[in-house]
Amino acid sequence: MRKIKEKRSDSLIYHNDLNCFTFKNFKSVDYNLFFTICYYASKNIKSTKNIIPISLSFEQLRDFLPQEKNKKRFYENVVAFAVKLNNLKTSNYFLDNEGYRIYSVSSFFDEITVNEKEENIIFKIKEKWLNLIVNVVKEYTIVDLKTFCKISNKYTKNLYRYLSQWQSTGEFIIPFEKFNILLDIPASYDIEKIEKRIIFPSIKLFKDNNYFKNLEYIKEKDKTKQGRGGQVTTFTFTYDIPEERKEKMLNLGKRWGRKMKSENTNPPPPVKRETVLTFN
């Protein structure tokens, strides 16, 4: 069993495909625990073939969960999370080149154990998912885990992830229905409630903390559809590209002999694939 080494930075780098997962019924603390586990796994697992159990102390978890000081309650939170993970499955649906449907189901973790006396959590991630968090060098999202865990609202937390994914372009465009699925928004929420309870408070928090500079939000409507002023079809979020991302893109361009365009590039079209994390 491998014990986790101390962290070097608070940045979690993972493959963009992890942003295609819908974490059904996750609470804010569940997101914190899941991505904290991914963070430490990414820092300490050197190969996607390494599937030995890894031990993570409660103290290390508290680095990213400072709001929970009570030991007994903290343990109970971790156990409740482990129970969820025990039933956590990934279902993957896509079309092959000939248009035939392919559907598969798999668990994300092989096993997970929480030890109250030793105050640790022992986990083993399934080999097929390690490539999402280990040695990721392209098509990645960079998330500041301290910032992510500090955000209390789970919807704001997820929107933070998606905006972070598109920092290299400064533009996040998503269909209305896909937005609701990825953020696991209740079906009872109409556009007015989504804006009032999720989008507007999230934008305010991002602006107040300067997480995304010059953040703007636009909703597009199909005026031929029913509804006041038409039916909402797409959300667009625009913001400044961080200077460090611009420099990194420029360096990559020089490395591969490419000329980098000065204007933003549009996100690639979505693939015909949907990965969903669900609980049985």
Provide a descriptive summary of the structure in words.
The protein has eight helices and 13 strands. The protein has a single domain, classed as Arc Repressor Mutant, subunit A (Orthogonal Bundle), CATH 1.10.10.10. The protein has about 280 residues and is of the alpha+beta class. The radius of gyration is 20 Å and the shape is globular. GO terms for molecular function: DNA-directed DNA polymerase activity.
- Sketch the topology as an H/E string, one letter per element: EEEHEHHEEEEEHHEHHEEHE
Q: What CATH first level would be assigned?
A: Mainly Alpha
CATH architecture term: Orthogonal Bundle
Strand order of the largest sheet: 1-4-8-7
Global morphology: globular
Mean pLDDT: 81
What is the fold-level CATH name, i.e. the topology?
Arc Repressor Mutant, subunit A
What is the structural class?
Answer: alpha+beta
- Low-confidence segments: 252-274
How much of the polypeptide forms β-strand, as a percent range? 25-35%
Radius of gyration: 20 Å
Q: How many structural domains? A: 1
The CATH superfamily bears the name: Winged helix-like DNA-binding domain superfamily/Winged helix DNA-binding domain
> Termini distance?
29 Å
Helix fraction bin: 25-40%
SS elements, strand count: 13
Q: Biggest β-sheet, characterized?
A: 4 strands, mixed
